[in-house]
Amino acid sequence: MSKERKFFIETFGCQMNELDSEKIAGNLRHKGMEPAGEATGADVIILNTCSVREKAVQKVYARLGEIRKLKSERQDLIVGVVGCMAQLEGERILKKVPYVNILAGPQKGHVIADLVDRAADSRSPAIDLRMDEDPEPLETAFVLRESRWRAGVTISEGCDRCCSFCVVPFTRGKQRDRDSANIVREVRDLVGQGYLEIVLLGQTVNAYRDPSVAGLTFAGLLRKLAEVEGLKRIRFTSPHPNEFDDELLDAMVSCPQICDHVHLPVQSGSTRVLRSMRRGYTREKYLSTISRIRRAPRPIAVSTDIIVGFPGESEEDFRDTLTLLDQVQYDSVFSFKYSPRPNTEALELGDDVGDEEKGSRLTVLQEQQRLIQYNRNAAYQGQIVEVLVDGKARSRFALAGRMSNNRIVNFDGPESLLGHIVKVEVAGFSANSLKGVWIQQ
Ligand code: 5AD
After folding, report:
1. Are 276 and 316 in contact (CB under 8 A)?
2. Mean of pLDDT values over 83-108
3. Relative to the CA of 6, which of 42, 73, 150, 358 has its CA 20 to 30 Å away?
């Protein structure tokens, strides 16, 4: 029955969700279904969702509103809502959108095909929202990957931290780490298939502790992976500032395959706000970690996440964030308005910075950061850099590639360069990317 079905997956949210979608696709294809090029014409539509901010949840409901039309044209269309928002909202989704056929939490990639079968066979929705009593397997037999040269690899799931703004512990559960031998085996297989770059994924990657007798730390795991022959690039996301120790920095410095980039979410530049966010560090402690990174023998780019308008964030607290940006000189920043989330501790603090004020703080912050990035990118003018060519440029250029430090370089060249590491001379720049000329060799 499932043999003829075609599926279409839409992913909302982070890199981990993107990998989860590839696991879902792997499971569906293994069970005989085939990917459809678009939602129209698919027999199964899966929305793999995010719940980190209210906006992400609203986006999914808006999309479900659009899909209603497809559903009304085709009663047998199966629509699944899976991932973090499904875990968080649970059966409330069915109250709002009764036509939904499947609900499943994150890390259910290996059972989605079964849920599709169950939903097709019965009139009632197929639901799998179990969490704690049912720890999910960290090994995934089938992954249908989007890229042929960059692959995400799970090293851990869940998070043991309890940042007061964050919903993730309630959607992805407690931290579970994967055996290092299995991670190394997966990476070896990927390199054997021609993958050049792997991205190690976990909610707090540097809290990784190998559960096997090898007992590797995160730095130990990185060193082990750097021994895999043929692997060109290793990235990881995201580390927590508190566990960014010298062992990790030493591993980065001594293994050239590990990319020159660290995403180190700071969230706020005010120690008072950081305390109320339960981040576990002060502004000064964070800055001392940044100085250690800056003193490393090779340059390492640093990016971050910032929340503006956290409950109680005063003008002065916000200014502390702006001065932190000036001090650190980040290579890129993702910034968000605070969004109150269910179950989180910060809910009790209210939401006392108005939406308009959050908006204007966000604008001020982004303007300041634009200038910082513009100046940092200017320094690349005329340099010859290496990029992994990974897609079509969004701009008028034909190709886009990423430097080890995660900068995007747009340039013209033949499509045959896709999936190769090539040299490009930087001939222009903006705050967000570089422009280059391919150096034919
Ligand atoms: N409101 C706004 N931003 C949030 N983030 C996490 N939770 C919230 C929230 N409740 C941001 C943090 C995190 C990133 C992935 O999303 O900056 O690092």
Report:
1. no
2. 96
3. 150
SS3 167: coil
Distance from the alpha carbon of residue 166 to the mean position of ligand 1, in angstroms = 6
- Percentage of the chain surpassing pLDDT 90? 93
The closest-lying atom of ligand 1 relative to the alpha carbon of residue 339 is: 1
Answer yes or no: are the C-beta atoms of 51 and 171 closer than 8 Å. yes
Q: Is the CB of 341 under 6 A from ligand 1?
A: yes
Q: What percent of the chain shows pLDDT beyond 70? A: 98
At residue 2, the pLDDT reads 45
How many other CB atoms are found less than 10 A from the CB of residue 303?
Answer: 18
Residue 378 contacts by C-beta under 8 Å, 6 or more apart in sequence? Answer: 429
Question: What integer is the mean pLDDT of 389-409?
Answer: 89
What is the number of helices (H) and of strands (E) in the chain?
13, 19
Phi-psi region of 85 (alpha: psi -120 to 50; beta: other; left: phi over 0): alpha
42 pLDDT exceeds 90? Answer: yes
Question: 337 forms bridges with which residues in the sheet?
Answer: 308
Instruction: Give the DSSP letter of residue 258.
Output: B
Q: Is 108 in the pocket of ligand 1 (CB under 6 A)?
A: no
The tokens for 125 are 């929705």
